[in-house]
Amino acid sequence: MFGxxxxxxxxxxxxxxxxxxxxxxxxILNSQTNLSGYISLLIHAEPxxxxxxxxxxxxxxxxxxxxxxxxxxxxxxxGAVEWARKxxxxxxxxxxxxxxxxxxxxxxxxxxxxxxxxxxxQVLPFLAATSLHTSPGSSDQVAVFxxxxxxxxxxxxxxxxxxxxPAEYSCLKAIILFAPDAPGLSDTVNVExxxxxxxxxxxxxxxxxYSNQPMRxxxxxxxxxxxxxxxxxxxxxxxxxxxxxxxxIKILIRDILLSGGSGN
Length: 264
What we know:
The protein is mainly α. The protein has one domain (50-258): Retinoid X Receptor, CATH 1.10.565. Helix content is 63%, strand content 2%. It has 13 helices and 2 strands. Strand 1 (21-22) and strand 2 form a beta hairpin. The longest helix is centred in the middle third of the chain and has 24 residues, at 139-162. The two termini are 26 Å apart. It comes from Canis lupus dingo (dingo). Residues 34-260 form the NR LBD domain. Keywords: Nucleus, Receptor, Transcription, Transcription regulation. This is NR LBD domain-containing protein.
């Protein structure tokens, strides 16, 4: 299955060396290359503001209403696909390559968007309890599921503690999306180059904006590695079973992508 535990725990690319750096497609970057314009394009590709939107879109009295949470989850997933469609390079790929990348990375993109929304902490435990009530399992299954939900909750809290800003979130999502090891991907060279460029952009941005936090860039990359430890099946069960039933997420992702942003 796409998004499997083994695939989603792949290694991140090594941080680029100082000085001149040649991307996989031959493009040369150096310490003077200004990547701020690229970051601006990533930010402006967002179909709607995400930062703090969870507390704005879901009112306190409605926060634990399942229908409202599922609507927000659908909006977050749709926003991730729409963002990918509008960022540099991704639209230049063949449709099959676009689908291959989103099939592998949708869960990580969704979780990054969810973290950026800053939904109230009680939402995940509520979803977990609801899921276990509607789809009870054996004691072992419940234990594993509960452990994974706690892992997801911990990752959300760690992103919040880092105070990740919109530019950093956009770069992290681009690093995730441009995965050269996606099964079925044909244009691996360019995708690898765009991942490297996204990582260079993040490193440059962090060094300039957070010069007093020399370890911040490394911490952000470690957060991505930890995020991938959360199985996509858990995210599906928490957020989307109530919406789409047994419809595979990969079909939903393809439909959103090919709908051309109609939102249907």
